[in-house]
């Protein structure tokens, strides 16, 4: 009953404010299935944000996603329902760190995961997501790139490409916790298990998986019907959301929660639309350069 009251209020507020809600795949099912207008991985949300015609975008996701939406559609009001929805990867690197990397490796292009602040994007040549990292790197036509800040994503991509990758020591606090031993134990306990791992997991975890891809890649794999019993080595809401869409698939549920994503709740979204808070803006001194890095990625 508490959910339905918030859901009804949010649907009415969306009309009143001429707002759309973009929700990442790690949002809880009542957000993902009941109030979101658009759902997807980081890449899909960036593309959709660019196309929004409504006046207001509510980002049911984390701060870097809201900043990306603002950069790509600057005339819109972008709201992030919780100021605490950050990201351990975004927190792992600053613009000054990127300048130091450039000084250490002169002339080597900087490929930056979208899980970063606009300041860091502004110091970069091009952005990537987990869904397009290899294509972005190979689009540059160089032998060597700096790839920041996710060390594990960079190491996982390095296994798929001939391009040499210089890494940074950032990690996703959700995916770094998985271990190869647990995956072997789950396989032993659940015969026929198909294991899908996000590329933010350590390489030794990805090596134990049958498939690795972005959250959208995992959704497509499950929708393809190739597996009757799956383990998604990623954030917990991913399985919850897919289980609603695919009752025929059995989801084995060990997972890790992202505390940042979980700051977004129905009541936070409702309050955000009632009070038009918290509005996300990007410093004009970095906005144009940060936008260019994202637009270069979207053009690949
Ligand atoms: P994708 O949805 O792009 O795979 O990103 C995962 C993630 O950790 C987002 O914070
Ligand atoms: Fe950041 Fe990891 Fe949470 Fe995604 S799941 S927002 S990468 S901490």
UniProtKB/TrEMBL annotation:
Binding site for [4Fe-4S] cluster: 87, 172, 258
Keyword terms of this UniProt record: 4Fe-4S, Cytoplasm, Iron, Iron-sulfur, Metal-binding, Pyridine nucleotide biosynthesis, Transferase
Pfam family, one: NadA
E.C. numbers: 2.5.1.72
Location within or outside the cell: Cytoplasm
Reactions mediated catalytically: iminosuccinate + dihydroxyacetone phosphate = quinolinate + phosphate + 2 H2O + H(+)
Keyword Iron-sulfur carried by entry: yes
Cofactor binding, note field: Binds 1 [4Fe-4S] cluster per subunit.
Annotated GO CC locations: cytosol
InterPro entries membership: NadA, NadA_sf, Quinolinate_synth_type2
Residues binding iminosuccinate, per UniProt: 24, 42, 113-115, 130, 198-200, 215
Cofactor: [4Fe-4S] cluster
Domain of life where this protein originates: Bacteria
Enzyme class: transferase
Any one of the GO BP annotations: 'de novo' NAD+ biosynthetic process from L-aspartate
Keyword Transferase listed: yes
Gene Ontology terms, MF aspect: 4 iron, 4 sulfur cluster binding; metal ion binding; quinolinate synthetase A activity
Pathway: Cofactor biosynthesis; NAD(+) biosynthesis; quinolinate from iminoaspartate: step 1/1
Record-linked PANTHER family: QUINOLINATE SYNTHASE, CHLOROPLASTIC, QUINOLINATE SYNTHETASE A
Role description: Catalyzes the condensation of iminoaspartate with dihydroxyacetone phosphate to form quinolinate.
NCBIfam families for the chain: nadA, PRK09375.1-2, PRK09375.1-4
Protein name as annotated: Quinolinate synthase
């Amino acid at each position: 009953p508490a959910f339905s009251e918030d859901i009804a209020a949010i649907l009415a507020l969306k009309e009143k404010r001429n707002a759309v809600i973009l929700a990442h795949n790690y949002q809880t099912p009542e957000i993902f299935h009941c109030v979101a207008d658009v759902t997807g991985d980081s890449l899909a949300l960036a593309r959709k944000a660019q196309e929004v015609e409504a006046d207001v975008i509510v980002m049911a996701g984390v701060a870097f996603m809201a900043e990306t939406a603002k950069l790509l559609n600057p005339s819109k009001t972008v709201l992030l329902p919780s100021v605490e929805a950050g990201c351990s990867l975004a927190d792992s690197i600053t613009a000054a760190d990127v300048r130091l990397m450039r000084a250490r490796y002169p002339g080597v292009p900087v490929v930056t995961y979208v899980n970063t602040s606009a300041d860091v994007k502004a110091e970069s040549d091009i952005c990537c997501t987990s869904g397009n990292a290899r294509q972005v790197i190979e689009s540059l036509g160089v032998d060597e790139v700096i790839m920041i800040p996710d060390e594990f994503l960079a190491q996982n991509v390095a296994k798929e490409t001939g391009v040499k990758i210089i890494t940074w020591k950032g990690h996703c606090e959700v995916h770094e916790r998985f271990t190869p031993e647990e995956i072997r134990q789950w396989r032993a306990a659940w015969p026929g298990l198909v294991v899908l791992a996000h590329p933010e997991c350590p390489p030794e975890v990805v090596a134990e998986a049958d498939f690795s891809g972005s959250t959208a890649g995992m959704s497509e794999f499950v929708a393809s019907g190739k597996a009757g019993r799956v383990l998604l080595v990623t954030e917990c809401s991913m399985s919850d959301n897919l289980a609603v869409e695919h009752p025929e698939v059995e989801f084995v549920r060990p997972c890790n929660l992202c505390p940042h994503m979980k700051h977004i709740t129905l009541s936070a979204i409702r309050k955000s639309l009632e009070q038009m808070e918290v509005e996300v803006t990007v410093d004009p001194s970095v906005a144009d350069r940060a936008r260019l890095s994202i637009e270069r990625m979207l053009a690949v």
